[in-house]
Amino acid sequence: MAKVLVATDKPFAPVAVDGIRQVVEAAGMELALLEKYTEKAQLLTAIADVDAVIIRSDIIDAEVLDAAKNLKIVVRAGAGYDNVDLDAATAKGVCVMNTPGQNSNAVAELVFGMLVYAVRNFYNGTAGTELKGKKLGILAYGNVGRNVARIAKGFGMEVYAYDAYTPISAIEADGVIPVESTAALFSTCPVISLHIPATAETKGSINFDLMNSMPKGAIVVNTARKEVIDEAGLVQMFEIRPDFKYMSDIKPAIDAELAGAYPGRYFATPKKMGAQTAEANINAGIAAAEQIVDFLQNGNEKYRVNK
Ligand code: 3PG
Predict the structure, then answer these.
(1) pLDDT in tens, 259-289
(2) Rounded distance, CA 256 to CA 284, Å?
(3) From the CA of 126, how far away is ligand 1's center (Å)?
(4) d(CA 141, CA 164)
(5) Dihedral over alpha carbons 256, 219, 231, 239 (to 10 degrees)
(6) Which of 88, 161, 253, 277 is the most exposed place for a label (fewest CB within 10 A)?
(7) How far apart are CA 4 and CA 43, in angstroms?
(8) Sheet architecture: strand order including 73-76
């Protein structure tokens, strides 16, 4: 009987685990759970005999893959798969998939949770501003970016986007204004929402010069990855631009320093919360389970991300 492990340092909502269990057991497979683990050794033990694993931001490196003697597939229940060593998986003949789009509305909603908090001065009682009429720049127009655009229009924002890989016509079809570069997006919009993945190309790419080109009242919201921000540039931005606010769903390494130095201008969630809704957990978790069943039973590799 094939065995599927759910290994989540940050657990899914119980209702999502119930759904995953139903899919796995209906396919005649066994489900094992490793939640809230604190040591890598626990993952190395739990993964040793499984055929498939569902993860979130959990690290699957060469050591974990070496320990997983029967592993055939890893599904990252979510969008970004920078936490999986794709080359090591390919070398071991392990298929890696993600579940694109399944948690994107949840992440997009959190963008606005943090934006309202920012423009209302962290609810400190003073008069803030409104989002209506403000220019919002969406960097990368994928599943999350599109949901951010949809919600932004409800707020009455003027929405701009840059994406090197999405046709301009697709952006325009959503009533969003395409710009020709990241630099143009930052210099046009006082509010920027980041949706780029962490890649060799994007790491550290959101730097001081880009942020400092933003119009007055600059707010950067990061629900993407902490690695895309140049942290030295971020500190410089806080120092030089008293109007600047940074709202992040991923704590930078210098979280404590920023929180101490810039209260009311810097906010980070205690743990990445973008995808942490029951709905997103159900969508991504069940999609992951279904993809595993389809892969193990029929060889379907539709969402494979490693070659
Ligand atoms: C993603 O890439 O899907 C999001 O960053 C969500 O990550 P999480 O599953 O760790 O919350």
Answers:
(1) 999 999 999 999 999 999 999 999 999 999 9
(2) 32
(3) 34
(4) 9
(5) -80
(6) 253
(7) 13
(8) 30-35, 3-8, 52-55, 73-76, 95-98
Lining ligand 1 with CB less than 6 A are 10, 56-57, 78-80, 103, 272, 274-276
Between the CA of residue 234 and those of 97, 243, 267, what are the distances in Å? 33, 13, 13
- The pLDDT score that the predictor gives to residue 31 is 98
Rounded mean pLDDT of the chain? 98
Sign of CA dihedral 14, 18, 19, 20: positive
State how far the Cα of 49 lies from the Cα of 273, in Å rounded to an integer: 31
Amino acid residing at 231:
E
Our separate counts of H helices and E strands in the chain read: 12, 12
Q: One-letter amino acid identity for 208?
A: F
| Residue 44 identity (one-letter amino acid) | L
228-243 per-position pLDDT tens digit: 999 999 999 999 999 9
Measured between its terminal Cα atoms, the distance across the chain in Å is: 27
The number of angstroms, rounded, from the C-alpha of 253 to the middle of its chain's C-alpha atoms is 17
Cα angle, residue 219 at apex, residues 218 and 224 outer, rounded to 5°:
140
How remote is the CA of residue 133 from the centroid of ligand 1, in Å? Answer: 30
Nearest to 85 by CA among 15, 46, 76, 247: 76
Q: Tell me which of 59, 75, 81, 103 to substitute to probe ligand 1's pocket, judged by most ligand atoms within 8 Å of the beta carbon.
A: 103
* Residue to substitute in 8, 12, 57, 281 for testing ligand 1 pocket (most ligand atoms within 8 angstroms of CB): 57
